[in-house]
Amino acid sequence: MESPPLFDLKAYLQSKQQQVNDWLVRLLPPAASSRIADAMRYSVMAGGKRLRPVLCLAATEAVGGRTEDALNTAVALELIHTYSLIHDDLPAMDDDVLRRGKPTCHVAFDEATAILSGDALLTLAFQLLASPNGTTGVPADRLLQVIHAVAAAAGYEGMIGGQMADIAAEGNRIALSRLEQLHLMKTGALINAAITTGAILGGGTAEQIRHLEEYAQNIGLAFQVTDDILNVEGDPAIMGKAVGTEESRQKTTYPALLGLAESKEYSSQLVENALTALQSFDQKADPLRAIARYIHDRNR
Amino acid sequence: MESPPLFDLKAYLQSKQQQVNDWLVRLLPPAASSRIADAMRYSVMAGGKRLRPVLCLAATEAVGGRTEDALNTAVALELIHTYSLIHDDLPAMDDDVLRRGKPTCHVAFDEATAILSGDALLTLAFQLLASPNGTTGVPADRLLQVIHAVAAAAGYEGMIGGQMADIAAEGNRIALSRLEQLHLMKTGALINAAITTGAILGGGTAEQIRHLEEYAQNIGLAFQVTDDILNVEGDPAIMGKAVGTEESRQKTTYPALLGLAESKEYSSQLVENALTALQSFDQKADPLRAIARYIHDRNR
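Above: the input entities. Below: the structure tokens describing the complete assembly.
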């Protein structure tokens, strides 16, 4: 692993998160204007790292573009991510009552409102993607390309297909290749879309976009592997269970399949691959490099 | 009411429905490729009059455009309509077990699959709207305008907002103005979008689009009023209940608010307004005229 550069990731993330939150507040329906407006705001403003928007904006910067041109898309990706969480939390799905320490949407409101506010956020995302607002410098055909990429990533061949596969896999131990495929669809596809659409909007070349796609695939998986590792190491009781009786766990994890040491090794390799994919980029890709290193440092 | 022209509406509807169904079969994920693909196909191909696609294509023709340029949009509107039915039928919403005589999606599959296949159809609609396939003759900025209009009509200020209002109104008698507002959002917005986007894609002028919008608003409401009338006249037992104890009905209807005779009068007036809005169009708008007359004839 290279030594960390003199780049203040924490300040960068805070500034980008602020930019994204400011735009979200402006775009969401006004508070108290209707019950659905309240439910939409409640879920979107419940916190979150804004990972997809930040990656989108960082990719725009990496190819020398203007972040203003990618802000609508960055925010649309967060709306899509939020809708997917609302629907995944529903009783018919994961049946979660808490998210980020707050009641989930169907608990704070009701199930019908949660279903409809998820639908409304997904729809608003596409309204935003097709809006001229904030993307005056971007040609219309490029915006169409972005909408197509986001829809494909969020749809039945991407995120939704991954959620279906996740439900089907619950309670069963699945093979590494199927676990990888599931994550590539469920979370990888939208992370990939965030980075490639950022690059498209920033005017990146086909070669730059190809390199960034490789970066995206690797950090998407690295995030998942690291999450699985932290889940194990964060709680020795869970770890014991995971090591001893993986088959009794609801969901298959990397440590359960590969063991802890090999999972860490795998995560390092993925981050290394992501950094290698950025080799031809100049210092404008430093935020993307710092994000990749941050993933690695989480599990040391 | 003018005398009916020599236009074979039945043949026209059949030919357009065939065109739409052929395109749908090609665009939906292959049967048996996955559980979600099966659920999407099941719901979309369960029948239906394809009203929104037909109106979209007829509007394209009315302004002298090519229907091939509107086919993606026509089909996307049907995907959005179908997703809204799947979600409306869910136990947390209207809790319907049958639609068009067949088990609803969550009954035929399961609730999680129904939620996700609705999400997938909505997402696929936007993927299609942004796809160059079948719209080679349409400039990209016009396609963006169409995507924006469809999203706005389907979102929290349109169809979804109308469904929220419908749920809130259930069991309460609401005033005529609120009933009208509810229908304009719940079904009117998407019918309106079908017609205006058809006109946009066909290269209609701003004035033509304005006239078609007026046509759309009037036939959207006329459809609803006629539906309410047929529900009453189709079953005298229901009619007795509706006339005597409107407040005990789950949903407010036009006959309950206005009485049967005045509802028929109102429906005629709306159809008359729709035909007047088409006055400046030539015979290429005959399909739209015939559709408006058909609504009127239903309740004679």
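Note for the figure: Residues 206-233 of chain B form the longest helix (28 residues).
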